[in-house]
Amino acid sequence: MNLDEAIRLRDPAQLPSRRDEDWRWTDLRGLLRTIPEPSSPLGPQAIGVGPFEGLAAESLVVANGSGPETLRVAPGETRTVILRHVSRGDGAHSARLRIEVGGGARLTLLESHEGGGSSLSLLGVDLTLEDGASCERLVLADLDPEAVAVVELDVELSAGGRYAQTVLTTGARRQRFETRLRHPGLRSEARLDGVYILAGRKHADLTSVVRHTGPDGRTDQLTRGFADGQSRAVFQGRITVQEGADGVDARMAHNALILSDRAEVDARPELEIYADDVACAHGATVGALDDDVLFYMRQRGLAETDARALLAVSFLGEVIERIDFAAGAERVRSWLLARIGAGV
Question: What's the whole-model pTM score?
Fold first, then answer.
């Protein structure tokens, strides 16, 4: 199973399927009988303006698979970079980007996934953080309902490093964000957060794998979302604490609201612990909006749609509050409010 090979060779047999345990809820082989023709190049007018416009002077654009292949942040440097992954049309494309953050450097990555049409896309990112380096990644994904998109991120942490991400998505025909993080411990920290707001027939899959290989590391993960209409949300989180990784503190939580009896949420949080003296916990809840609170708000003069939107924003707000980059958090909050107000 290799999505990049499937796109490059136009071979649907290489697509992941429900026979692959980690893909059983995001079956691409059963969905796509053929691989589309390669995507056409995009000109500047077709790319337009992204959701993080104005928050950074530096911007990288990967458009229909074409764009930069490397980003290097020098040791001790502080940079804020916008990364736009733009897909247009009905073709297939893939791209890979390598990001290196030098010792003691700090990178804020403002990433967006934008698309129109029934494209098939893959973006792979390899991120290396050297000793004492940090990176905060904010992701906004708003794709066409007919798009199929996969984003894969591999993170290599080093001693004293910090990686934090917040992914917000409205889903697509099939969409998957997969984060694989190698955690060395040694006072390094990771935060992996996510929000999904799904309606119609949209699908979103937030999958993460964290491997603690050394002592004294911390991982904190919070994902919240809601599914309406006939949408489907998938959350898969696996944290492995290997032998010798003593003193690890790892926590994972997934909380979802189902707003329709035709929506579906599949959650699989996992802990694998092979070390002593650790503090690890995980949990998942799936429920509905509180009818009593909704009734109370309507009695105070709020329309039902407004009341439901306010409750949804309150439910998701804790994830936004954990963002460090204040200007980014404000932009993310506005983006979220606009989509909830429009019924996604």
Answer: 0.94
